[in-house]
Amino acid sequence: MPSGTFLLPFSIFVGNRINMESYSSINKSISRYVTFSDAELAIFNSLLQVRTEPKKTIMLHEGEVCNFEAYVVKGCVRKYYIDENGSEVILQFAVEDSWISDISFSIYENEPSRVFIETLEDCKFLIFTPEAKETLFEKAPRFERAFRILLQRHLAVTQNRLFNTIAKSATEKYIEFLEHYPTLPQRVAQHYIASYLGISAEFLSKVRAKLAKSH
Fold it and tell me: What is the spatial distance between Cα 113 and Cα 4, in angstroms, rounded to a whole number?
């Protein structure tokens, strides 16, 4: 197998056959930033691929080249890397109505990824490849602005998370986490949340117990 080859071992592709509810969700999401005509949205939808993955599927391994951007129709996903001590450090969770990819040099410069992307629940995605994106920008150029805004928003969230890691207490970080991901404590293991917050699972238990007493 050539180095960097991207495999979809458990993927189920069903062409562009997808129910209107799923199209409605992604169309509403992308239209938050730019207003599109029905014809433009039809072009966008025609370039999407449906992919379903069972829980605990590694969609991207470290060292592979990422060649997808995935919109989460249903389920929960995590993006993480392994540090020098062999510990998993979670960079992002993605749930319904959000996007997941490796937006570093892997997808834009065809470089090996430094992260893993793994499903934490049975998931359904709409997949967008770099080739499909180029076709979209040629046929419906206004989508370029929408995706640029999406990227800017992702970078802003990343910068805000870096600030929080440095400047905020564990309790403050957990409260903000709950504001962004209110359902995740019931959906994922506590040690995953602790990894995302940069604290131990034991310390997170103390934070949660303290907050429970105060309410």
Answer: 9
